[in-house]
Specification:
235 residues, alpha+beta, Elongation Factor Tu (Ef-tu), domain 3, 2 domains, six-stranded antiparallel beta barrel, four-stranded antiparallel beta sheet, elongated
Length: 235
């Protein structure tokens, strides 16, 4: 995505930028730390302030082609306006923790049971993941969560790196979702949980698995013969 600062620095909370496009209820910025909804991760929220002190609440962020659209409350600033943006950090950090939690979960079930991901959704206080598993009982689900907590407790570094699409396509283990929904990009962004798991992903993550905290199973659902759903929360 053009000007997407969050792709390389998930911990950046503030930034300065310039409005490049202004439309009825929002703007495009030259660069931004605001994450647009996608991949099961909700968009960021926050605030934008002009040099003159005018303020706009950023209520949602979405992708449009290669642009990032910031929906704001009130009449948006005009093209050329210089602004300072600030994230709702508590919301962003919650999404980061849950997103890394889901990578730990998908890593455990992929490496041990060969399961792919059929869906996921992150919230501020919980997350869910849909998996292609045959065996699925409450006891089995709790065993998975215990393994996920064990991996998180190793305090593994989490880093971002990029790989050419051509090279990434040679390794099916890097993509856990349907390849037909992978973005058409020349470089694939990888999330590397050191010594445990690497997979393609465009979201924001914590820098170490110790930041995830304790994972708890909320409930399970049987969504079909090979579609099982787990809900988790963090403490």
């Amino acid at each position: 995505m053009r000007g997407a600062l969050y792709l390389t620095d998930a911990y950046r909370k503030e930034f300065d930028s310039t409005v490049t496009v202004s439309f009825a209820d929002g703007i495009v910025l030259e660069e931004t730390v605001f994450y647009p909804a996608g991949g099961g991760q909700p968009s960021d929220q926050g605030e934008i302030v002009s040099e003159l002190g005018d303020r706009w609440k950023v209520i949602s962020v979405e992708k449009s082609g290669n642009e990032i659209l910031h929906k704001v409350e009130g009449v948006p600033p005009t093209v050329g306006t210089k602004v300072h943006g600030t994230l709702d950090w508590n919301l962003r950090y919650a999404h980061m923790r849950y997103h890394t939690c889901l990578h730990l979960l998908s890593g455990v079930v992929f490496h041990k049971y060969g399961s792919a991901i059929t869906g996921n959704q992150i919230y501020a206080d919980r997350a869910r993941m849909d998996l292609t598993l045959n065996e699925f009982t409450p006891t089995f689900a709790q065993d998975i969560i215990r393994e996920v907590n064990e991996v998180a407790g190793r305090h593994l570094p989490v880093s971002v790196r990029f790989l050419s699409r051509e090279v990434a396509d040679r390794d099916p283990a890097l993509v856990r979702v349907a390849r037909n929904i992978m973005p058409d990009v020349k470089e694939v962004r990888l999330i590397d949980i050191e010594g445990f798991d690497v997979q393609a992903d465009g979201g924001t993550h914590v820098a170490n698995t110790r930041e995830v905290g304790k994972i708890q199973l909320l409930k399970t659902e049987n969504k079909g013969a090979r579609n099982k759903r787990l809900y988790v929360t963090l403490t």
